[in-house]
Amino acid sequence: MNKSKILGVFDDEEKLVSSVRGIQQKGIRINDVITPYPIHELFDLLRLKSRIPMAAFIYGVFAFIITFGFLYWTSVVNYPLIFGGKPQNTLSFVVVIFVAIIFVTILFTIITFFLAEKKGPGAKVHFEFPGITDDRFVIIIDKGEDTDFKVVSQMFQDMGAIEVKEMQ
Length: 168
Known about the structure:
Number of domains: 2
Number of strands: 4
Low-confidence stretches: none
Mean pLDDT: 85
Radius of gyration: 25 Å
CATH topology of the largest domain: Alpha-Beta Plaits
CATH architecture of the largest domain: 2-Layer Sandwich
CATH superfamily of the largest domain: ACT domain
Structural class: alpha+beta
CATH class of the largest domain: Alpha Beta
Strand order of the largest sheet: 2-3-1-4
Helix content: 40-55%
Number of helices: 5
Shape: elongated
Distance between the termini: 11 Å
């Protein structure tokens, strides 16, 4: 089983996006694209999908139900206080619910992201390339039996790559 990869390194976002389009038009499958910051156009070009927004929505609904239930129970059921004849179930805790929804949603979404991506303290770096977190963009193509390094290397260079490497 060959686990060799061909890496095309770019120094410009526009060259990277046009290269991804060109590679896809030639029918070559892109394994991964690594960038120092998110490029939303790549998300659409590579047809990536994420369940993080749906998870965040579920966490928000969960936070609303739990917070409203807790506030209702403490204000109306467990220890009701009557202030000047006002009803006990008022909208006086809307701000608390809003803040709790934001807090719980952000907290659980971050935890979900770190668990899904296997990140966090002590996580091992699976891929190391100099400058990848600074100013370099990398397209990774799996090298199969039908993929010739010279052909792909020439294609990367024609598309504006500053470096082409083969890694195990």
